[in-house]
Amino acid sequence: MAALAFPRHVHTAPRPCFFSNTPKAKLRTRVSVQSSLTPPQLGFSDPFVLELAEALEDSLSSPSSPKLSPLEKIRDVSSETLLSTPWPSRKDEPFRFTDTSFIKNSKIYPVSRPPPQSLDAPLGSSEDTQLPHLAVVDGHIVDFGSNLSGLPDGVYVGSLSNATSESLVKRVGEFVSNFDWGDLFWSINGVGAPDLAVVYVPAGCRVENPVHLTYYSVEASDEGSNKLPVSNPRVFVLVEKGGEVDIVEEFMGGDGNRCYWANPVLEVVIGEGGKVRHSYVQNQSPCAAHIKWTSVRQFNPIFQEAESSYQLVEVSSGGKLSRHNLHVQQLGPDTMTELSTLHLAFYEQTQDLHSRLVLDYPRGSSRQLHKCIVANSQGQAVFDGNVKVNRYAQQTDAGQLTRSLLLEPRATVNVKPNLQIIADDVKCSHGAAISDLEESQLFYFQARGIDPKTARKALVFSFGAEVVSQLPNSFVQKKVKNQIRELLDPQ
């Protein structure tokens, strides 16, 4: 099984410039104290990482409200982690096929604050903005474009700083920063997150309408510029025992080929018998960097009639470099996980999915379907899917399948399905398939008077439809289908 931790070494690449607003010594003080306690030969993280962390800290104000103590906790833990974490290179196994030098060689700087008071482009269609809707602009939660009316009693969606319930703030603080599998980008988000958005569903509550989270990147540089503003949105979802909710995440950029770096994190905690359906649509600028972390913890006690379930449907088509780090832990028996992803690389871009599913309890069930379409000779897709069935996860049923469609002669896909089984009473399988469109399929269309260009579009569209059709909300399905049609026919 591939190692998922970065080796402790320092890279000495040229360092770009960083920009900050006000001086602060918080991280520098921590480094000074740590250096007096650590042998010189151990060293610290890459100086590039340290300067980036300092720039992020300088750009943020310290939380003044006790309500934001969970956010302060996230920042403290992330700062300590960054002291021993270098920037990843192609020599590190998790990044063997993913080149992040595009980010490192840019002039990175935190987005300016406060966020704009309005946007020229709408944050959503008229249909989905009528639903519970939270707008996040450059990592900041904004009032315009948000609609939080019509939520059931006890449900909270919004900034943690606006929460009026002390018990809610305390409950959130019990779970944040208890995740040990994050990498450098997880920690960068923890240091640079300006706010913490919370979606809270109390026990036994079912939220009928999906909660729509729209992330919009406004501050950006022009195409060809070396400047790269970075934003760090962070969202925490807590569904208590027997709760149920649909979460829709949609990432968008501005008009044109704008350059920026979105580095979001989503944490999901699902209580006993809780259900979360998660839709994730990424349509960033083709010149942007998009690195996302999703951490899910599913709880279920031994004696529980209703099973805890998590369903993810992802469609990712934007970004020059797009990477999704997905980690799911089943922390109880009779737990169900379904993961379906579709990655589209129609430009010179990299679409990367690194998933890790850990099953620790009996009778767990998981299904993972990964599909990708690479339609550019300089495009590539990466899939590294890890499923680990530990010793006590007996009677587990786990399946994993990845299918890739390469439409250009030099298009590239690197797939590595990985199934590690320690238990001895399981039903597990995985498989991989890579191909171009079959000539027999094209001939079938041509025999019925359909020209080859139209036939190829129909076959490519139907290849992705297996994932798109699983999106639980009709308005999201419609939007994604239109995006795919535009990619297939840019005119």
- The overall pLDDT, averaged over residues, is 86
Could you give a short account of the major beta sheet?
Answer: 12 strands, mixed
Count every helix, treating DSSP H or I runs of 4 or more residues as helices: 9
SS class: alpha/beta
Task: Identify low-pLDDT runs.
Answer: 1-16, 19-25, 32-43
Question: What key attributes describe this structure?
Answer:
12-stranded mixed β-sheet, 491 residues, single chain, 35% strand, globular, alpha/beta, disordered N terminus
In short:
Strand 2 and strand 3 (140-147) form a beta hairpin. The N and C termini lie far apart (45 Å).
Task: Write up this protein.
- By secondary structure, the chain is of the alpha/beta class.
- The chain has nine helices and 22 strands.
- It has helices at residues 26-37, 47-59, 69-82, 101-104, 166-173, 184-192, 439-446, 452-468, 474-488, and strands at residues 107-110, 133-137, 140-147, 156-159, 197-201, 211-217, 227-231, 234-239, 244-253, 261-262, 265-270, 275-283, 289-299, 309-316, 321-331, 336-345, 350-359, 365-374, 380-389, 396-406, 412-421, 426-435.
- The strands form two sheets. Strands 1, 4, 5, 7, 8, 10, 11, 13, 15, 17, 19 and 21 form a twelve-stranded mixed β-sheet that branches. Strands 3-2-6-9-12-14-16-18-20-22 form a ten-stranded mixed β-sheet, with helices on one face.
- Strand 2 (133-137) and strand 3 form a beta hairpin.
- It starts with 25 loop residues before the first helix and ends with a helix.
- Residues 1-16, 19-25 and 32-43 have low confidence and may be disordered.
